[in-house]
C-alpha cells in the first residue's frame, strides 16, 4: 500500500512567497508576477494560515523573513527550479543536428526527395532522415520531429498545419488519345486505372459517368494502393486514371501525360504538417516549414496556369 498523499499549500501562494522572499519585497514580487501588491499580500496570508506560521515580519517600508520563512525558502526555490527545468526539457530538441521526417510515400518519391538537395544546401549543418509511411507515426518515445500527412487535418493530440490543397484530374499517356477528337468516346475504350486509397472513394463512379460509361458494366484493369504505382502505370500507357495534381503537374508540363477531359475534382484530403505543438518551436522544424512552403508555391502557380490554359474553372473561384 502506497504512502498517503500529503496535502500541499496552493501553488500560487508558494509562488508568491518565493518571489517575495527572494526579493524581500511584496511590490517587486507583484511586478514579476504581473499582479497587484494586494494580491501578493493575500497569497502570503493564505500560505501562512495553511502552514500555521508567520513567514514575514511586516515593517513600515520593508518585509523581513522570519526563521520559519528562512527555513522554507530554499525548499520552495528548489521545487520551482526543478519544475521549470522539467517543463523546459519538454521543448528541448534531443537531436538538433538531425531532422527526422515521416512522409506519405507517393509525395516523398514524386515531389519531396527530388527537391531536398536545395534544403540541404541551405542547411549544411543538418542531416535528414526520411521515413516513408502511410500512417501517422507515434511521436512519443521517438526522435521523430515532423510528419507530412495526407488527410483532413484531424490528428488527436497533435497540431496540424495546412500545407497544400489537393485536386484530382483525369490523365493518360498522349499516345492513347487524339486530342482533336471527342475524348469521352476514346476513354470509354481504355482501361480505368484506380487508386483504392480512402480519399478516392466514389471518384471512379463520377469519372465513368462523365465519359458515359455504365458504372455497373465498367471494370478497372489495375487497382493500386499507392499513387506512385499509379503514376508508373499511366506513364507506361496502360490506361487512364484520376491523379493528384501535385504528383502529375510536371509530367503534364513536359507532355509526358495529358489531361483529356476538362474535369477537375476537389480532393477529400489535403497535405498537412503534423507534430506535437512544441516541435514547431524547434529551429530546424521552423526552417523546414519555411522552405517547404516556399517550394510548394510552384505547385500552386502551376495549378493556376493549368486552369487558365485549359479553361477549367478554378474550384476556389
UniProtKB/TrEMBL annotation:
Residue span, HTH lysR-type domain: 9-66
Protein known as: LysR family transcriptional regulator
GO molecular function: DNA-binding transcription factor activity; sequence-specific DNA binding
Transcription regulation is among the record's keywords: yes
Family: Belongs to the LysR transcriptional regulatory family.
InterPro entries per record: LysR-type_TF_proteobact-type (IPR058163), LysR_HTH_N (IPR000847), LysR_subst-bd (IPR005119), WH-like_DNA-bd_sf (IPR036388), WH_DNA-bd_sf (IPR036390)
Organism: Motiliproteus coralliicola
GO biological process: DNA-templated transcription
Transmembrane segments: none
Record keywords, A-Z: DNA-binding, Transcription, Transcription regulation
Transcription regulation is among the record's keywords: yes
Amino acid at each position: 500500500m502506497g504512502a498517503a498523499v500529503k496535502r500541499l499549500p496552493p501553488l500560487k501562494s508558494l509562488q508568491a512567497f518565493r518571489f517575495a522572499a527572494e526579493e524581500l519585497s511584496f511590490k517587486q514580487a507583484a511586478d514579476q508576477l504581473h499582479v497587484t501588491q494586494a494580491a501578493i499580500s493575500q497569497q502570503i496570508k493564505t500560505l501562512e494560515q495553511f502552514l500555521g506560521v508567520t513567514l514575514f515580519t511586516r515593517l513600515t517600508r520593508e518585509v523581513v523573513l522570519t526563521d520559519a520563512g528562512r527555513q522554507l525558502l530554499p525548499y520552495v526555490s528548489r521545487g520551482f527550479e526543478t519544475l521549470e527545468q522539467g517543463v523546459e526539457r519538454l521543448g528541448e530538441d534531443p537531436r538538433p543536428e538531425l531532422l527526422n521526417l515521416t512522409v506519405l510515400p507517393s509525395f516523398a518519391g514524386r515531389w519531396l526527395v527530388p527537391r531536398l538537395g536545395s534544403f540541404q544546401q541551405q542547411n549544411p549543418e543538418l542531416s535528414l532522415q526520411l521515413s516513408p509511411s502511410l500512417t501517422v507515426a507515434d511521436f512519443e518515445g521517438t526522435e521523430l520531429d515532423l510528419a507530412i500527412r495526407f488527410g483532413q487535418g484531424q490528428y488527436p493530440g497533435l497540431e496540424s498545419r495546412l500545407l497544400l490543397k489537393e485536386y484530382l484530374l483525369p490523365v493518360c499517356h498522349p499516345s492513347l488519345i487524339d486530342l482533336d477528337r471527342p475524348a469521352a468516346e476514346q476513354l470509354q475504350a481504355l482501361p480505368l486505372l484506380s487508386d483504392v486509397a480512402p480519399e478516392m472513394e466514389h471518384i471512379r463512379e463520377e469519372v465513368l459517368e462523365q465519359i458515359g460509361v455504365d458504372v455497373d458494366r465498367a471494370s478497372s484493369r489495375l487497382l493500386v494502393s499507392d499513387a506512385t504505382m499509379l503514376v508508373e502505370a499511366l506513364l507506361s500507357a496502360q490506361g487512364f486514371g484520376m491523379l493528384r495534381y501535385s504528383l502529375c503537374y510536371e509530367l503534364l508540363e513536359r507532355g509526358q501525360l495529358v489531361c483529356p477531359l476538362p474535369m477537375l475534382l476537389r480532393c477529400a484530403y489535403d497535405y498537412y504538417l503534423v507534430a506535437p505543438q512544441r516541435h514547431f518551436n524547434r529551429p530546424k522544424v521552423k526552417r523546414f516549414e519555411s522552405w517547404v512552403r516556399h517550394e510548394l508555391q510552384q505547385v500552386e502557380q502551376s495549378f493556376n496556369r493549368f486552369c487558365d490554359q485549359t479553361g477549367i474553372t478554378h474550384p476556389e473561384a
